[in-house]
Amino acid sequence: MTVSREVELEGHIIDSGMMQSCFGIIMDLGGSFSVQEFDIGRHKDEESYARMLVEADDEDQLQSIVHELHQHGVNPSDPKDATLVPAPDDQVVPHGFYSTTNHPTFIRHNGEWIEVEDMEMDCAVVVEDGEAHRASEQSNGDDEEPRDYPRAYTKVLNAIEEGDMVVTDETGIKVQPPERPRDSGGAFGFMQGGVSSERPSESTIRKIANAIKETKKEGGKVMAVCGPALIHSGAREDLARLVREGYVDMLSAGNGFAVHDIERDIYGTSLGMDTESLDHPRHGHKHHIYAISEVIREGGIEEAVDSGTIESGVMYECIENDRPFVLAGSIRDDGPLPDTITDAVEAQNAIREQAHEADMVLMLSTLLHSVAVGNCLPSTTRVVCVDINPATVTQLLDRGSAQAVGMVTDIGTFVPILAEQLLDEE
Amino acid sequence: MTVSREVELEGHIIDSGMMQSCFGIIMDLGGSFSVQEFDIGRHKDEESYARMLVEADDEDQLQSIVHELHQHGVNPSDPKDATLVPAPDDQVVPHGFYSTTNHPTFIRHNGEWIEVEDMEMDCAVVVEDGEAHRASEQSNGDDEEPRDYPRAYTKVLNAIEEGDMVVTDETGIKVQPPERPRDSGGAFGFMQGGVSSERPSESTIRKIANAIKETKKEGGKVMAVCGPALIHSGAREDLARLVREGYVDMLSAGNGFAVHDIERDIYGTSLGMDTESLDHPRHGHKHHIYAISEVIREGGIEEAVDSGTIESGVMYECIENDRPFVLAGSIRDDGPLPDTITDAVEAQNAIREQAHEADMVLMLSTLLHSVAVGNCLPSTTRVVCVDINPATVTQLLDRGSAQAVGMVTDIGTFVPILAEQLLDEE
Amino acid sequence: MTVSREVELEGHIIDSGMMQSCFGIIMDLGGSFSVQEFDIGRHKDEESYARMLVEADDEDQLQSIVHELHQHGVNPSDPKDATLVPAPDDQVVPHGFYSTTNHPTFIRHNGEWIEVEDMEMDCAVVVEDGEAHRASEQSNGDDEEPRDYPRAYTKVLNAIEEGDMVVTDETGIKVQPPERPRDSGGAFGFMQGGVSSERPSESTIRKIANAIKETKKEGGKVMAVCGPALIHSGAREDLARLVREGYVDMLSAGNGFAVHDIERDIYGTSLGMDTESLDHPRHGHKHHIYAISEVIREGGIEEAVDSGTIESGVMYECIENDRPFVLAGSIRDDGPLPDTITDAVEAQNAIREQAHEADMVLMLSTLLHSVAVGNCLPSTTRVVCVDINPATVTQLLDRGSAQAVGMVTDIGTFVPILAEQLLDEE
Amino acid sequence: MTVSREVELEGHIIDSGMMQSCFGIIMDLGGSFSVQEFDIGRHKDEESYARMLVEADDEDQLQSIVHELHQHGVNPSDPKDATLVPAPDDQVVPHGFYSTTNHPTFIRHNGEWIEVEDMEMDCAVVVEDGEAHRASEQSNGDDEEPRDYPRAYTKVLNAIEEGDMVVTDETGIKVQPPERPRDSGGAFGFMQGGVSSERPSESTIRKIANAIKETKKEGGKVMAVCGPALIHSGAREDLARLVREGYVDMLSAGNGFAVHDIERDIYGTSLGMDTESLDHPRHGHKHHIYAISEVIREGGIEEAVDSGTIESGVMYECIENDRPFVLAGSIRDDGPLPDTITDAVEAQNAIREQAHEADMVLMLSTLLHSVAVGNCLPSTTRVVCVDINPATVTQLLDRGSAQAVGMVTDIGTFVPILAEQLLDEE
C-alpha cells in the first residue's frame, strides 16, 4: 500500500532548476510521482505551473520527501496550519523546531499565510498572536508603531525566550526560492556563473556602478562591509568620497579597519607604510597602536572628530555625514577602540539591524564580516562580493543569495574605478 | 659638532643578521660609526661581540638611531634607568609610552635589569615596586604566592589602570631578539625558508612529531589551535587520540570547531556530510544548528558529556581527560554554545593565559584563532603553522616568531600521519 | 507563419539537467515548444523519453535552436545525412565545419549512424568511405589491421589534409552527453560538487584507490600525469612503487619531472634539497643541470638505466617494467633530456595516442600537462585531479568530463596514502 | 696543518648582505677566517672593502668554501686563469663544467678579465680566442660586424658543439651580484619586500609608469610578456594602445593570447564572452577555433591583417607598427596559428634573442612565458611581474633578479590604469 500527497510548483520552475531538483529528490528518496498538470511557460517571461502526485511506501518516507520538496519551494496543494510549540526555557527550542533558509517564507496560521519577518537563515520562527505583546506594551508604555497581528518572525537561538511559540515540523510552511530569470535585463543579470579572475573588469565595475545608481534612485540603502585591506591598498580616499556623496549609507567593519583608517589620517601611514610614497617611516609599525591610544584618550571616534584629532577618512565622513556604522570586535584586535562592540552576540544584533535595512550590500575584502552580514540577509538583497582571493568570493557566493555577484579583483583598483564611474562621470 | 654614544652587540650577531641591520640603520638615519672592538666567533657555536661608537649631527638624530638600534637588540654600553610615568586614567597610556616587541625584554630600574614578564607584542610595560601590591594584598587577604619585587610586566592597552607606572621613551630597555643559529641540530633547525607546498611532506611531519616528543620529554605543554576544517577534512578522530594520549595538553578554538565536532558525534556528519561515506544525508545542513540546540538544552559541553549526549570526539576527550579549552566567539557563529566566550576582550584574556603556559603551539587550519594566539606568544615559543592556503602560513610566519615552522599541506592528511608517527610507531 | 521540427530527448534527461537546458535554450532563442510525449523514469535507474515540437519564426531561428539543442544531446527525431565538404587545402577546413565536443558523437552517413572514433573536443570530423584508404594501403604496403568502412573520426586542425571529407553544419550529427546518475553506487558516485579543501581526505583517497582497483580488475589502463611537485614533495618513491606494481600503466609528464626524478637518484636531492633530511647541500642548486648533462652524455634515459647511471625512481621503474611514457617539452625546460619531445604538435600527438588508450587518468600536480591530456580525452574516461591549489582543480574539472573527481590536497601526503591503500592493505 | 687563501669583497657588502652570507658560508663549511682589512662605507653611497684570509683543514674543504664564496661575489685576491676544456661531443659538456648564475660574470683568460656575454642562468660558458671564428667567417662569407677577441659567452646545453672551449671548475671566474642600495631614489627603489595584495595599488602603478617612461627616455626597449587572461579581463584595447604609442616595443606570448586577441577582433568575444556586454552569444565557445581556422586560411597573422580579416587589437598593432613578436607553442594549444613556433628549443632561442634586447620586461598574467623569458634575462634587466595569484608573483620574483618588482593585482584594471598614466596624463 502506498501513501500519497499532492504538491504544486509555481514560477520559473524550469529556468530556476526547481523542477529538476524536485524530480531528483523524489527519486533519491525512493518515491515516485505522476505529473497531473503541467503548464509550461513558453516564453522567457512566463511562469510555469505543475501539479504532481507524490507517492511513497509509508508515511515516514512521504514526510521526508515532502520536507525536502518544500525546502526547494514545492508546497502541498492542500496545506494545513503550522505546528506551534512553546519554548521550554530561555535559549532552548522545542525538539524538531523548524530551522530557516534565507528565502522568503510563509507560515500558515489559522488558515491564513503570514509572511515571516526579518528572514535570515538558521533561525527559529516565532508566531505571535498579539495578546501577549499588547499586554507587555501597555505595561511598559512602549510607544513603537502598532503592528498587525498575528505575525511571524525569525529569532536566533540565543534570543529565544521561554514560552515563545516556535514553529516545529514542516507543516504549514511555504518557501519561495528566488528565481534567476535568464536575460532579465536588470543590473544583476550578469555574471552569475562561477568565480574567476579572467573576467572583463572594467565592464563589470560599470555594471555594479549602475546597480548602485539604480538602488539609490529607488530610494534604497547601500551598505559597505569593509576589511582593512581596503585601507592598505590605497582605496581609502575613494571610499571616503563615496560615503560623503551618499553612495554608501551604512558601514559595517571591524576594529582594524577603523584603526588603519585613523592611522592614515593621523600619521599618513597604513600598517606603517606611507600609501603615497610607499616608504616605511621609522616607528611606522607602532603607528596603529598609537592611533588607538589617541582615540581612547579622546573617548571615541566621534569625540576625536569633534576635537579635530581626526580630520579625514572613511570614519570621519561617517561621523560628519551621519552614516551609521557598526564596528564589531574580534579576538585579533589591538586596543580595541571604544566604539568597537566586543561582545559577539551584541555585535551580531547590531549587524542584523543594519542588514535588515540594506537594499544593496558591497562586501569589500573581508571574509569574517561579510559572512556575519551575509548570515543576516534575506536572499532577496542585492549583494556584491569583491576580493582578490577567489576562495573568499566563492565562499560568500555559496551562501545562497540569488542576487549575489562576485568579482575577483584588486580592491585597490576596484574602489577608485567605481568612484570614478559614480562621481566623475555624472 | 657631533654627538655620539657607545653601543654593544652580543650573540650570533652575524648569523642573525643583527650586525647588517645595525649598520644599515645607522647609515639610513644619516649617522656614522666606528667599530671599536670586533670579536668575531670563528666557529658556528661561538658568539660574537662588537662595540661601536655611533655618531650623529644632533641629539634628536642620535636618539632616533639609538631607538631603532635597540629595537634590533643593540643596547647602550652605558645604560640608564627606564623612564616611568603614571597612567593618567584607566585605559589611557602616557604619551610616548614604550610599545613592546615579542622578544625577551629587560627594564633597567634602580640600576638593575629586570626581565619583563608575560612578553607579547604591542603592549605597554608596567613596573611595580611592590609597596602598592603588598598594601592591596593585605587588605583583600589575597593568598597567591609572594613575588619578588620590583617586577615589570606587559599590559594590553585596555587593562591599563590609572596610576600604573608605564615605561616611556627608549631609555633603560634591553631587547634580545632570538637568534637562529644555523645547523643547530635542534628539532626546529629546518625549513625556515619561504613557504611553499613543494616540500617533502612526510619528512617534515616526522620532524614535527620529533619536536612534540622532545617538548613532552622536557615536561613542556603542547597547545593546539584548531579550525573547523580539521573536522570537515576527517582529522577529528586522530586529533581526539592525540588529546587522549596526552600529546595535546590544551585546546584553543572557536564555536564552529566545537559545534562541528559535536555534530559529528551526534549525527555522524560534519557540515552535513558523512565524513566516512561522503554522502549528504537529507536534513544534513540543519545538523549543526540541531547540535547547538542539544548542547544548550543540556547547559554546556561538560554537562552534555556527563549525560551521555556527547560520546566521542575532540571536545569529549578534553572533558574526559581534563585538558583545558578556550572557545572564543566570533560574529559569524551560530548559537553560540554556552561554553563560548562571546566577549572579544574576555576571550583574549583567556587565550593569553593559555598562551603563556604553552611551550609549543600547533596552529591547525585557522587564521583568526592563530593570529589571536600568536599575538600573545613570546618569540621564544615553538610554533608550527599548518594550512593548505600558503597565504595563511605566510601571514602567520610573518608575525615574527623565530621558532615558527610553516607547512602548506592538507590538514586531513597531516593529522593522521602525525598521529601515526606519535602513537603507532612508539 | 512558423516553422517547426520534432526533436527527441532520451536518457536520464531530468537528472542530467538535459531537459532543463533544452527548455531554456528554446526560450532564450525566442522559440516555443509543445511537449508531445513525456515518459518520465519514476525510479532512479529508469531513463526518460520526451518528444517535443520546436517552433520558430523562421528557418534561421529554427536552425539556431536546433544547433544548440543538439549540442546538449537533443536530436532530431527525423534525421538526415551529415553534410560532407572536402578540405580545400592542407590544414584548412571548409567554412562552417562542425567543431566537436568531447561527448560520444555519431554521424549519419548513407542513412546509418557511425560512431565517431577518437572523440576529443575542438576537432573536425572526417568521414572516410574506405576507397581512398584502400588505395593508399595497397600502394604503400601498409599492413595495419583492416578497418570497417565507412568510418568517422576526429582530426585536429593541423592534421587536416586537402580533400578530407569534413562534416559541416549540424545536420546528421548526434551527441550523447554522459549522464551523472545520482547515487550510482559506482566508484565515482562521490564528490561531484564544488571544489574545496574542506573534505574528508582519507575517505576520499580510499574511494580513489577503489576506483583504481576496479579499473585494473576490468582490464583497464591507468595513466598518471605528473608534475615535478610530486618529486619535491617526497612522493617519488611511492609513485615508483605504483609503477612497479602495475597500478600505473602509462606516464605523461614534462622534462622537469624526469629531471628531478633523476636528480634525486643521482644526487639524493630534488631542486637541490635532500628530501629526507631537508638539508640543502652545497652545489645543490646545480644538481638538476648536472643530471641533465649526465643523461645527455649517455644518450637518453633508457641508456642511462642500462648503464647503471640511474638506479631508482619513477623513470627507472617505467624503463624496467615497460611502462610507456611521454615527456613533452616546454619553453621553460632546462636541457632538455634527449627523451623530451620538443615540438608541441608532435608531443600532442604522442599524448593523444596515450590518452586514447587510458581508462582512468590521475592528474597529479600539473596544470599544463593535465590540460593537454584532458584536451584529448573523451568525456567517458575516469579522471582524478589532485592539486593543492583549488584553482587548478576547478579549471581541470570545468573542462567537462562527467567522470572527473577533484581533490584539493597535498600531493606529498596523497600519493603515500594512496600507495598504502593499494599496496599494503591487500 | 691548515691551508688558506686570501679573498676580497667589494661594493655595498653590508647592505647587500654579502658580508653576512660570506661569514655564514665559511662557518657552515667548517672553515675559519681572519679579517685583514675592513674599510666600511660610513655613508649610504659609499662602498666598502674587506680582505680576509680564509682557512680550512685541507685543500678540498678550502676549494668548497671558495666555490661558495665566489657564487656570492667574493673573489680571490690573487686570481688565476679559468680552466678551459673542449666539449667531447655535440650537446655534451665536460665533467665539472661551470654552470652560470644570472649575475654579471667575468672570466680570466690570459691574465685578463673578459665579461661574459649574454648572461643567463644555468648555461655553460664558452671562451673563443678568435682564430676558429675568423676561419669560419672567411669560408662562409659571413658579414656580421667584427668582434673583439678573446670573448666569452653563455651557451645552453643543447647548443654546445664538439670542441667548444668550456669553462670548468671555479678558478678564474668573478661574479658580481647586483646590489640593492637602500634609498636609491631610482624608479625601482620600492616594494622589494614580500609579495602581498595589501599594497597601495594606484601609487604602485604610478611608479611602474614612471619606470617605463624613464626606460624609454634612456632609449631602452620595453618588452611585454602576455597571457590570455589579459584579453579575457578586458585589457586588450589598452595594451593595443601601448603597443601603438610605442610604450611596448616587443611582445612575447603564446598561441592562446594571439588567438583570443584575434577572436575578439573577428567575433567580439573572448573565450566566448562579449567583453563589453558580458553576454555569452550562442556558438561563442567555438569562436576561438573558428578564429584559428580563419588565420590558417589566410596563411598567418600578417596576411590576415593585410587582407583586412584582422582590423584591431594587440597583434594588429604589432604588425602595423613593426613591433616584433614571438608566439611560443605549448602542448595545450588549439590549432596552432601558423605564426606559433611549436618547437620548444626553437622558441627558446627566439625568446632568448628578444630577452637580450630588452631593457625592461613587463610580465603580465602568465607564469609559463614569464619563466621562459626570465630564464634568459641577466639579473640587471628591470622586471615587473603582475598577476592576481600571489604564488605566481612569488615564484617569478624568487628567480633572483635584483631589479624585479612584483604586484598582486587584477590585470584587467592594471593595464587600463597604466595606460591612463602613460597616455592620458602626458
Q: What would you say this structure looks like, in words?
A:
4 copies of one chain form a homotetramer. By secondary structure, chain A is α/β, with parallel strands linked by helices. Chain A has 3 domains: about 1-80, LOR/SDH bifunctional enzyme, conserved domain (Alpha-Beta Plaits, 2-Layer Sandwich); about 80-180, Beta Barrel (conserved putative lor/sdh protein from methanococcus maripaludis s2 fold), CATH 2.40.420.10; about 200-425, Rossmann fold, CATH 3.40.50. In chain A, about 35% of the residues lie in helices and about 20% in strands. Chain A has helices at about 20-30, 60-70, 130-140, 200-215, 230, 235-245, 255-265, 285-300, 300-305, 315-320, 345-355, 365-375, 390-395, 410-425, and strands at about 5-10, 30-40, 50-55, 75, 85, 105-110, 110-115, 125-130, 150-155, 165-170, 175, 220-225, 250-255, 270, 275, 325-330, 360-365, 380-385, 405-410. Chain A has a 6-stranded parallel sheet, sandwiched between helices. In chain A, strands 8-9-7-6-11 form a 5-stranded mixed sheet, covered by helices on one side. In chain A, a hairpin with a 2-residue loop joins strand 6 (about 105-110) and strand 7. In chain A, helix 4 (about 200-215) packs across helix 14 and helix 6 packs parallel to helix 10 (about 315-320). The first copy, chain A, is elongated, with a radius of gyration of 25 Å. Chains in contact: A-B, A-C, A-D, B-C, B-D, C-D. At the A-B interface, helix 2, helix 8, helix 11 and helix 12 of A face helix 2, helix 8, helix 11 and helix 12 of B.
